[in-house]
């Protein structure tokens, strides 16, 4: 089969991008040809992938996204494929991977009447409707039950079009064995002693992931704990605003910002706690990576993957509505109780031994193949 994938931008460290890459590789390993449509590809290209760079046209993001959809539709007329799998909402998709929340639900909750009169709102709703309306035939891959609930509520999408995937992390990178192998070596490389606390936050879009919430919680720690903290924030974003905020809170010397890195498994093995107090997070693959690494987590309830942490007993889930004081207290109590951190870590590893947190790419490839075969059968008759 010739399977086409489309996403606006590929860079190596985004959660959506990593899911795309692993699904596309799973299809390629089954002998299928992979074509990728994107505005931009950062980093090394995957051997065997045909990457087609779509030109950018339009004065705004939503105008460029509309052009992206139209350009691909025109290009496919002369370069046909067997299926189009999208990681951004647009018309013409055979399968959509829902790496984001329901836009209609989000704006209903956060925006006022006048926002809904903007071209941006109309464009994004049109793209979402093209995927989820009852008139669409797009199959939908979701990461959490809440995503499915929101989309059905706003679009009345038939439930049989949804496919709930297991999490999908690389077992060769995230496991209890890797934690044992990496922890001491990585902490030594970072200059950490046995008494130091290494806190980690991983994810692009620092505002949405709640980095300033994390900084406030660290600044509120008792001095005896705070002076032992090293906090790394890793993600593709401009850190200027957060760096200034750390300076304002008086903790700048202990906070380090890094662009995407290849050694996240090693950093997770070395860390004592992952912070992820997100304002919005459709799923949060980093939470599952922490779970498989035996790394305790403090996250917010809005994270789609938060129920996995609750089920595993791996840390604290801060309920909504969010209160900064609750996060402050949770972080302080956790760091003052090393036995609790150890229990959370062990519970996470035991959970991953008993539950599937790895098969997302294979499940997605199964659904893609079935969609193509079903379409071929219908055409034959």
From TrEMBL:
Highest taxon of source: Bacteria
Chain coiled-coil ranges: none
GO MF, one example: glycosyltransferase activity
Glycosyl transferase family domain ranges (all copies): 185-348
Gene3D superfamilies: Glycogen Phosphorylase B
GO biological process, one term: carbohydrate derivative metabolic process
InterPro entries in UniProt: Glyco_trans_1
Protein keywords: Transferase
UniProt protein name: UDP-glucose:(Heptosyl)LPS alpha-1,3-glucosyltransferase
CDD domains hit by this protein: GT4_PimA-like
């Amino acid at each position: 089969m010739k399977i086409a994938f489309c996403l606006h931008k590929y860079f190596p460290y985004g959660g959506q991008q990593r899911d795309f890459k692993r699904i596309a590789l799973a299809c390629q390993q089954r002998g299928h040809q992979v074509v990728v449509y994107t505005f931009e590809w950062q980093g090394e290209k995957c051997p065997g992938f045909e990457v087609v760079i779509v030109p950018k046209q339009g004065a705004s993001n939503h105008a460029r996204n509309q052009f992206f959809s139209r350009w691909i539709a025109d290009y496919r007329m002369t370069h046909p494929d067997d299926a189009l799998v999208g990681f951004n909402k647009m018309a013409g998709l055979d399968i959509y991977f829902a790496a984001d929340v329901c836009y209609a639900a989000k704006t209903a909750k956060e925006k006022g009447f006048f926002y809904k009169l903007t071209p941006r709102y109309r464009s994004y709703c049109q793209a979402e409707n093209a995927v989820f309306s009852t008139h669409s035939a797009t199959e939908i891959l979701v990461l959490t039950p809440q995503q499915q609930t929101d989309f059905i509520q706003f679009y009345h999408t038939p439930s049989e079009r949804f496919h709930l995937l297991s999490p999908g992390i690389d077992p060769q990178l995230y496991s209890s064995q890797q934690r044992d192998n990496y922890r001491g070596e990585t902490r030594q490389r970072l200059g950490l002693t046995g008494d130091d606390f290494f806190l980690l936050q991983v994810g692009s879009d620092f505002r949405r992931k709640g980095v300033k919430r994390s900084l406030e919680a660290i600044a509120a720690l008792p001095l005896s704990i705070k002076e032992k903290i090293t906090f790394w924030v890793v993600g593709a974003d401009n850190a200027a605003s957060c760096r200034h905020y750390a300076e304002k809170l008086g903790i700048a010397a202990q906070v380090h910002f890094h662009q995407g890195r290849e050694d996240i498994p090693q950093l997770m093995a070395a860390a004592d706690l992952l912070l992820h107090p997100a304002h919005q997070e459709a799923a949060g693959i980093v939470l599952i990576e922490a779970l498989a690494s035996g790394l305790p987590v403090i996250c917010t309830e809005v994270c789609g993957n938060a129920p996995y942490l609750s089920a595993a007993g791996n840390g604290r889930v801060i309920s909504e509505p969010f209160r900064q004081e609750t996060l402050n207290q949770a972080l302080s109590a956790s760091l003052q109780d090393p036995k609790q951190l150890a229990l959370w870590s062990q519970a996470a590893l035991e959970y991953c031994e008993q539950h599937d947190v790895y098969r997302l790419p294979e499940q997605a490839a199964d659904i893609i193949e079935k969609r193509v075969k079903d379409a071929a059968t219908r055409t034959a008759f």
